[in-house]
Every structure is written in structure tokens, then in C-alpha cells.
Amino acid sequence: MLNQLTATQYIQYSKQILLPEIGETGQIALLNANVTVVGLGGLGTLVAQYLAAAGVASLTLIDGDQVERDNLPRQLIYAESDLTKAKVDVCAMRLSDAYLDVTIVPVKQMLDVSNVDSLIPNTSKLIIDCTDNLAVRQVINRFCVNNKKTLINGAINHGSGQVFCFNFAKHTSAGCYTCFVPLTAKVEQSCATSGVLGPAVGMIASFQAKIAIEHITESFNQYGQLFRFNVTDNSWVVANLNRDPACSICRHHYLGEAS
To answer: Which tens digits make up the pLDDT trace of 1-54?
Structure first.
């Protein structure tokens, strides 16, 4: 557990430390934080880079994919020379080389319901879902509800992007991902089927990383709000999410609370 910044760390993170909402206390919190990022596509690679650069102590990166040519326009950590290589290996190498304060834990597997409990370390209190798979998002949501983790979910396709954050340990009125997207929901569009513009992916990833930093430094207070970005007209809409009393995932965790 780090209790004091070194002279080198003061210099490296000086622009963050100058922010009143972060300061020295917040930077120490970042340097002690343990975060898991699931999915190393356009969202996950940028989120991981921003968090490593901010000084997050430990990043567990989970992905079983290899780098493909059509990843290169929006997954900026990869190069043409990385084609066919495991994404987690490339990310771990690049981030470890660039950010010496950060421990990178690569997990070269696709997360699913059979392995989620073993792949996400118990020490990770913050889980960032950067996947492009509805079923996996539901698995991650259930895990976070059951283990009272904080979940930041981001998604982007041709027409819109969205981000929201649930803190299942402290803020329960917003419910969970399944309250918002029922288990019976079907995906109408995704990056694979409708395409996506690289800078739009970067906007959603940057917002996810910003929320993560604010959560770790205890300056975030918008849990349970949906931030939706319209790619076509560049507008943002913010809405409050409400718990579904009949939700099969989170209902039993809140039976003792008033509706």
C-alpha cells in the first residue's frame, strides 16, 4: 500500500495533482487502485492506456482475441506488425514499457459465465466492461451485482454510444444493467454489423476512463445515470436509470430496502 508519492511521481502526475478534485490524496488512490478491463477492442485499449497513464497500480486485461487488420483504424495500440498476435500480449507489452508504475496482468481468455469468477480477481473493485457482446455484458453485470463491485459499461455503434456506472456496494436505487437491458433483449446493431468511426469510439472510451478516475478519487457522483451520445448530430443526453423491482439479477440483493 503506497502512502506517499516519490519525487518522480510528483513530477510525472503533476498536472493531475494540480486538479483540486484529485490532488495528492487522489493520486495516491490511483497508485493503489486495482482495475479489471474486459475487452481489448477500440474501447478497452484506450481505457487501459488512459488508466495506465493516470497511474492505476494494477490493470487486469481480459480478452481472448487476436489482432486483425480491420481493428487498426480504431484500436490504436496495435500496429500492422501485431496482426495475428494475442491482443492481451500486445497491450501488456506496450503498457508495461510505457508506464513503469503499473502492473499489467494479461488474461488470454474470452470471459463467459463458466469462468468469470476465476478470471476477475477479487482485489479488483472496479470492473470496466468494454465488450461488444450482449451475453458477456450480462455475465459481467451479474458478477458485479453478486460481488458488490463497481461497473462502468460502455458501448458504441454507428449511430450512438452510451456509458453508465453502477456502484453496487453503495448506490442501489439505479438497479443494474439487466434492469436497463433485459435478458430477453436482442442486439439490433453492433460495430461488426453497422460499422463505427474511430474518433467516436475514442469519445466513449475517454468518458469511461474519466469516470473510472473520478470513481477511484471519490469525485464521481453520477452513479446510475445513462450518458447517451448521438454520433450523427454530436449531442449528449443524460437520463436517470431506475431499478426494476422484478429484475431477476439484482432484485434479491435489495429485498430489505423500500421500493
So the answer is: 899 999 999 999 999 999 999 999 999 999 999 999 999 999 999 999 999 999
Angstrom distance (rounded) from CA 165 to CA 243: 14
* Annotated catalytic residue, options 91, 144, 176, 191: 191
Of 86, 19, 93, which is closest to residue 49 (Cα–Cα)? 93
DSSP 141-158: HHHHHHHT-EEEEEEE-S
Which grid cell is 52? 495506465
Domains of the chain by range and CATH? 33-253 (3.40.50.720)
Contact in structure between 91 and 76 (CB atoms under 8 Å): no
In order of 13, 14, 106, 129, the CA distances from 62 in angstroms are 27, 30, 6, 10
Cα 164 → chain centroid: 10
Residue 250 annotated as catalytic: no
